[in-house]
Amino acid sequence: LLKEVLPNARRAMQFYLTCLDGAEKGIIDNRYLVGHFNSGTADTGIGIGDGYWDAISFPNVNLYANLSYHQALVGMLWLEEMAQAYNVTVPAVTVLGKDMKTVVTYTETAESLAEKLERCESLMRSTFWDEENGRFFAGYYDTADGTGTTDRKMDYGFLMFNLQAVADGIASEEQ
User: What is the pLDDT of residue 85?
Assistant: First the structure.
């Protein structure tokens, strides 16, 4: 089963790392996914909804997507540890880069994924934590064209995201 799953899991992880900037930024940015921004305007039809959310779209850099990225890192780390423990090897896998031309080869190891996981958790704690309200928030609203961020926090309480951050071990002891 691991021989069958590992190539697809590696491709998916490399997409996170390459196209959504996980390797460079430590947390993912949905800017590559055209239309997934939230300018925070009152108009309807601004941005594409995320997941089962049909009324709102989250900012390009958001807690919702990064909770999934964090879980993917945890899962991929476990798969790499299992492959190592059972000496499972598969042919190298690649994805296309953001320009849809550059070929990027997956080269992650359990050790490199553990480092990325630690960085992701640290950045999530600092990027999405609101000290004043004592909770995680979704992110900062994007600019009207989706190319940048404002200083306005998207925060509707998001109890389910806060619970997931605690359950997944992202929240610090103080948080």
Answer: 97
